[in-house]
Amino acid sequence: MGRLIDTVAWVHLADGRILGARSRGKELFYIPGGKREPGESDVQTLVREVREELAVALDPDSAEHVGTYTAQAEGHPDGTLVRMACYTARHEGTPRASNEIEEIAWLSLADRHRTPLVDQAAFDALAEAGRLR
Question: Nudix hydrolase domain location, by residue (predicted)?
Fold first, then answer.
């Protein structure tokens, strides 16, 4: 059995597109979020990571789970899986690239190939639900 990387992500949708972020030095975009710190809940992790990456404040009371996806982790040995719990949440402020984030972009289903496998699973589910075009 390989390793499991446990993450959470903020699904921010507008006009059938999803907000994606690209870290400095990386090619792929991913749904903003990250790994939890010891003792953090999903929502606490989400609020902290999104504040660090996009400089916006999420409303923790508005967080709504939209799905959890698991896939092979990019750039890790075979059998290393990443599990990503995805949430929507209201926010204050305008998302902008912050800290390790070099670029943000609105991605459509056609951009699916520009994301890691676990994000592709989320893209597929959101498209199936009619939320991503």
Answer: 1-130
How many Å apart are CA 49 and CA 34, to the nearest integer?
6
Residue 103 DSSP one-character state? E
Under the banding of pLDDT at 50, 70 and 90, the label for residue 35 is very high
Is the Cβ–Cβ distance between 51 and 20 less than 8 Å? Answer: no
Angle at 7 between CA 89 and CA 73, to 5 degrees: 130
DSSP state letter for 30:
B
46-66 tens-digit pLDDT: 999 999 999 999 999 999 999
**Bridge partners, residue 105, by sequence:** 20
pTM over 0.70: yes
Please name the residues in contact with 2: beta carbons below 8 A apart, sequence gap of 6 or more: 77, 78, 79, 80, 81
* Contact partners, residue 96, CB within 8 Å, separation at least 6: 54, 55, 104
For each of the domains in the chain, give its residue range(s) and CATH number, in order of start: 4-128 (3.90.79.10)
Closest by CA position to 60, among listed 43, 76, 38: 43
